[in-house]
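U., I forgot to send this yesterday:
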Amino acid sequence: MAMTSPEPAAVAVGAAHRELPRVLGFTSVVGILIGTVIGSGIFVAPNRIADLVGSPQLILAVWTVGGVLSFFGALAFAELGAAFPQAGGMYVYLRESYGPLVAFLFGWTLFFVIDSGAIATLSVAFSARYLPYFVPLSPLASKFVALALIAVLVVVNILGVRYGAALQNLLMFIKFGAIVAVSLVVFVFANGNTANFVQPAPAAWSGGLVGNFGAALVLSLWAYKGWEAVTFSSGEIKNPQRNMPLGLLAGTAVVVVLYISTNLAYLYVFPAGQIAKSSRIAADVMNVAIGPIGASLIAGVILCSITGAANGNVLTAPRVFFAMARDGLFFRKFADLHPKLLTPHVSILATGAWAAILSVTGTFEQLATYVIFGQWIFFGLTVGSVIVLRRTRPDLPRPYRTWGYPVTPVVFILAALYISVSTLVTQPLNALAGLAIILAGVPAYAYWQRHRASTPA
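Result:
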């Protein structure tokens, strides 16, 4: 069975006859992944993780397990991305495995909650948490700055995928170099203590500690979120059968190493108990190492980091809505490409507009909860696509096959199930709100199905 092509009804949308240009190489794939993953998580989550688990061994275990699970997910996505090198990524994989309804619900949730929520969350973090380190802002001014950040990223990405990718690569190199420099500066200049790596010892395992470890793992996985986004731009990647899997695996591995080394640097300077009390741990660590200038440098790095993560979402997510519209399952105009710039400009504009609304109406914590719950439901289903397609389409060309199959996909699926259920149990109101948004897509899907059926080919 050949790869699914756009439905006949979908190609009746005028400008949708044009294709996205394949201009992104291996470096851009890695840049998009690293730049999207490394946002505020590695700077925000460490103190909360330390507070939950208490000991340095468990802190490092949380980040290691989160990294391994993310890498297992990337292994599965690499097989899917090489087999289906089309714009839309996860949407395409879900469509091919479970049918259009599940794929639509993912795209629906991505638009209203997951990536639009991530863009909004990052813009709020930029304006309300870190920019005030340099410029005091009133609450109203903070909202305007968040909106301005979203607007700038939307304009850059409408001008061309090359511009969006170039900005992403630039910010990726800045944050990559800065995070490496932080570790080197700390170990060279700080008067640290290697005993912080082993003291205090972990508490005896109990139900409470297991629960806390799970909650800490959810936080680490929030910090790792973003590696999947590069698949959304599969339709613009040169030689995707090679560059997609290599970029996914190399980029994810680099992030894991960076995160663990950064936490080692934190622990070298401060014991776990002190990390738990620090809401700006990276700035505090650099202040110890080289003085106040270090804290200022870190604040600047975090602003670049957040901008890169937000840009990664603006760059990639609209490609999903573009693919949905080409299938006749979303607003028709979303399938249009700009006649000169060859970007899905309507899809990008709409994504930015909705993210802007979320940024001024929702809180940081609520948006983060919505993103985690909705994301991991579909993460588990997508990795499950590897198993489903191995059985239903054994003859599908697979330039790359998932290492460790079926163990690595099954471990990831179990972790995704745990995260979704635990979020539902521990934060039921926010999680149920996210679930309601997902289910609200069912009547919307029925509407677009009827509309597609009535549209002449």
